[in-house]
Amino acid sequence: MNIKEFMAQDHNDCDQLFADAENAVSKEDWPTATQAFNDFVQAMERHLGMEENELFPAFEEATGMTMGPTEMMRSEHDQMRVLFVEMRDAMERQHSDNYLDISETLLILMQQHNMKEEQILYTMMDQHLSEDSDRFHQLFQDMGDR
User: Fold this and answer.
1) Most buried one in 41, 71, 104, 125, CB count within 10 A?
2) Chain segment 29-75, per-residue pLDDT in tens
3) From the centroid of its chain, how far is CA 132?
4) Domain containing 34: what range?
5) DSSP letter at 96?
6) Do residues 80 and 44 make contact, with C-beta atoms less than 8 angstroms apart?
7) Residue 133: which H helix or E strand, with range?
8) What is the pTM of this model?
9) Number of folded domains in the chain?
10) Which CATH number belongs to the domain containing residue 120 in this structure?
């Protein structure tokens, strides 16, 4: 499995956890919503960490591009994390309308972000990091054992 395939599948897995949390908030099932949201944030942090700590540095080293697409992706990760905090606050206060408003903003950001990664960045990574494919495959397996 290449970088694009694995990371795109992980996007889908995170999206499902996001939807689970949103559905539970819509029903104001706060115990389920809290667990689903925690699962979503944990999965997202694992995904973002894989990118920030493994994939992005390897790509930057292989290409010499440090201020290009990876810098933009890191900036968007930071924006997502701000929204995670705001969503957690809304959940703790059990304000479903506020949570859903913020989650709509996050959904748009994630959709645009994932599209850029899946259509451009991951393809570039597969091209430039093929010599590291065994190492990344092992990291993906370890990540999948979550």
Assistant:
1) 125
2) 999 999 999 999 999 999 999 999 999 999 999 999 988 899 999 99
3) 22
4) 3-144
5) H
6) yes
7) helix 133-144
8) 0.92
9) 1
10) 1.20.120.520
